[in-house]
Amino acid sequence: MVQQQDNLLTKLDELDARYAQIETQISDPAIAGSHEKLIPLSKEQGKLRPLVMKYRKFREMAGQIQDAETMMADADLDAEFRKLAQEEIVQLTGQQSTILEEIKDTLVMADDAAIDSIIMEIRPGTGGDEAALFARDLQNMYVKYAERRHWKVEVLDFAPTEMGGLREVIMNIKGSGVWSKLGYEGGGHRVQRVPETESQGRVHTSAATVAVLPEPEEADVHIDPNEVIEHVSRAGGPGGQSVNKLNSAIKLEHVPTGITVSMREEKSQHKNRAKAWRILRTRVYEHYQSRIDKDREDKRRTMIGSGDRSQRIRTYNFPQNRLTDHRINLSLYSLDRIILGEMDELIAALQDYDKQQRLQNL
Predict the structure, then answer these.
(1) Less Cβ crowding at N or C end of the chain, within 10 Å?
(2) Which segments in the chain show pLDDT lower than 70?
(3) For 307-338, how does the pLDDT look when each residue is reduced to its tens digit (9 = 90+)?
(4) Residue 256 CA to chain centroid, in angstroms?
(5) Euclidean distance between CA atoms 327 and 256, whole angstroms
(6) Alpha-carbon distance 213 to 211, whole Å?
(7) pLDDT value for 32
(8) Phi, psi angles (nearest 5°) of residue 31
(9) What confidence score (pLDDT) does residue 218 get?
(10) Predicted pLDDT of residue 306
């Protein structure tokens, strides 16, 4: 723990020095007069400022504590002054601890907290109709959790089964800190329960997969329209004859990456195209970002998993009312509440584990 704090303070010293260096560079007339050089420096300075200001406050308090301790060491100090110095040390130490925790959160979690829009895709895995019903239950869980946090949920694509389950659902969830909360949900989810379709009362095991990707701003990712092949066809499935008569279904294929997106949810070709482009931008952005930030992504995988749908992250055992997250070896006997969207305890445990791992990897 002491080593971790020493590493943290060393890192903060480096960031403080970098902030001072940027201040010097920005005041240089040669840089101040260059739009091209000034903008990236200003952005970096803006990103560092909250962290550096808190760290400077932390160091200021450390100096005040040291002064109070020096007074306490003075044998000639009046008893009343000694008491005041002791009270000041206690107060400042508590404030310093609070600031240090805020610094830790800002340093390792701020980038995630800043992402306020995600694309979530849920599909059944092994288990037939029961897997499709489980996929529906997962969607309901996330929607209810989002509603509790007053986030906005938009269903981009929805393919139900005859039994009331889901073949696929793609949602956009928007709200403050949404990625920092739901970014842990990507992977394989396994359920153990007596299916609605089971007449013998036997417990079955089935699965569903969840993918969660941050939705980039249009400015964050550029896709050359000439590199995208668009296919237009009639929308099949539910919707009636009026849907089938229209060439409303859209399929986009991004040639450089091979990523494809199909959208047939809306009767309007225009709306399907707009939704397909949003999903395509998200997947292409994630594709390139994971290559650019491979080192960061590797570290993230050791903490909360890669979001790879083949990785089993969690088991929902209904007979025992138990949810187990295999990444952090956590079991909660409140599955009945979690499945209704009461996910705060689970997500807080994942966030805390993730934070500690990131601090160790500084």
Answers:
(1) N
(2) 1-2, 217-220, 234-247, 291-310, 362
(3) 455 678 999 999 999 999 999 999 999 999 99
(4) 27
(5) 34
(6) 7
(7) 82
(8) -85, -40
(9) 59
(10) 45
Task: Note the CATH number of domain 115-216+310-360.
Answer: 3.30.70.1660
Q: In terms of DSSP H, where are the helices of 33-119?
A: 35-72, 79-113
Per-domain residue ranges of the chain: 2-112, 115-216+310-360, 220-291
Q: Which amino acid does the sequence have at 35?
A: H
Contact 115, 150 (CB under 8 A): no
Give the distance, in angstroms, between the CA of residue 23 and the centroid of all CA atoms in the same chain. Answer: 32
CA-CA-CA-CA dihedral for 172, 112, 277, 208, to nearest 10: -50
Phi and psi at 62, nearest 5°, equal -60, -40
The C-alpha atoms of residue 168 and residue 150 are separated, in whole angstroms, by 24
Alpha helices in 1-34 (DSSP H): 2-26, 29-32
Spacing of C-alpha 61 from chain mean position: 33
204-238 confidence digits (pLDDT tens)? 899 999 999 888 765 567 788 888 888 887 655 54
253 forms beta bridges with: 229, 260
CATH of 220-291, one of 3.40.50.1240, 3.40.50.2300, 3.30.160.20, 3.30.930.10: 3.30.160.20
Run of H or E residues at 272 = helix 269-292
Q: In which element (H, E) is residue 293 found? A: none
Name the strands in the sheet holding 228-233, side by side, starting at the edge strand that comes first in the sequence.
228-233, 249-254, 259-263
